[in-house]
Design brief:
single chain; mainly beta; Jelly Rolls; nine-stranded antiparallel β-sheet
């Protein structure tokens, strides 16, 4: 339960007992060791897992995503708004139906962004491994852009 509360606090930017901080380790391994990830169907070198909830019901959920250096999540949408917190590394995150690094923004550990419901978006880890967490209100889904 403490882990779930800390994960939600990190995503919300609030505090648990004063101040919530990321692990001191600079690498993604502090966020990936012991986590049971599954490959993402619309991605290369990316994996994810639900930390809180399942995304199948009308309830809050939190997902942890790991993209290895050189990996990419193809353009897609979700029916719900999501709040992302980058916890390790950096990632190019863009909006639109095609991957376009020239119009993407580079997000680094500690950055937070909101992804509106129904808005096509994508992610690419060009410079390093990245780990981020996203939270939303289910039910949710991932719909690839065709």
């Amino acid at each position: 339960m403490r882990t779930a509360l800390l994960a939600l606090a990190l995503l919300a930017g609030s505090s648990v007992g004063g101040c919530a901080h990321a692990p001191t380790a600079a690498s993604a391994s502090a966020w990936t060791e012991g986590v049971n990830f599954a490959a993402m169907g619309n991605a290369e070198k990316a994996e994810a897992t639900y930390l809180v909830g399942s995304g199948r019901t009308a309830a809050l959920y939190t997902i942890r995503v790991h993209i290895a250096k050189g990996g990419r999540i193809a353009p897609h949408t979700h029916p719900d708004t999501r709040i992302l917190t980058i916890v390790s590394g950096e990632v190019y995150y863009g909006f639109g139906e095609t991957v376009d690094l020239a119009n993407a923004k580079l997000y680094r550990a500690g950055d937070v962004l909101s992804v509106p419901a129904g808005k096509p978006h994508w992610a690419e880890a060009s410079t390093s491994d990245v780990v981020y967490q996203e939270a939303g209100m289910g039910p949710t889904a991932l719909t690839p852009v065709k």
